[in-house]
Design brief:
By secondary structure, the protein is mostly helical. The protein is built from seven helices and two strands; from the N terminus they run H-E-H-H-E-H-H-H-H. The longest helix has 11 residues. It binds a DNA duplex (13 and 13 nucleotides) through helix 2, helix 3 and strand 2.
Length: 131
DNA sequence: CAGATGACTCCCA
DNA sequence: CTGGGAGCCATCT
């Protein structure tokens, strides 16, 4: 499924995004994995696209980027916001993921709120260890 | 009612 | 490294 998620699911997605700390960036797929429920990266993208303007300052949507660190949103403000948080970009305009990759939500928090951790699914676990 | 259209990712040329 | 197509579906012209 990769359509506009229902309100309840979108809410979980926003909550997951809130776990990404300043200076780190998560991918759409990682957020989808943390939220669980079999959702895919695109649903995360749609949910963020639906984020009301009134909540854009409360939800750090700018910390969610494409798998390769590229920013595919329409506006160019995302990069500016990230740079303001100390996130570095390479010559091709992509976030240096090796340096800013999100490590996933706090394990205790995830368990307490019914979310998954990135290591749960074994996604990118090996790469993260290289940090 | 048919066709276009996505804040994605993977795979192959 | 860049480019295009598939996957898969609710919504909006």
């Amino acid at each position: 499924m990769f359509t506009k998620p229902d309100p309840a699911l979108a809410e979980r997605i926003y909550i997951a995004v809130l776990q990404v700390r300043v200076g780190a960036v998560a991918t759409y797929g990682e957020i989808a994995a943390v939220v669980g429920g079999g959702i895919e990266a695109r649903e995360v993208g749609y949910a963020l696209g639906d984020l009301p303007a009134t909540r854009q300052t409360a939800v750090p949507w700018q910390r969610v980027v494409a798998r390769d660190g590229a920013i595919s949103t329409r506006g160019t403000s995302q990069r500016v916001l990230l740079e303001g948080e100390g996130v570095a970009f390479d010559e091709t305009g992509r976030v240096i993921m090796a340096r800013h990759a999100w490590r996933g939500p706090d394990s205790d928090w995830a368990i307490a709120h019914g979310f998954h951790t990135l290591s749960d699914k074994g996604e990118r676990g090996e790469q993260l260890l290289l940090l």
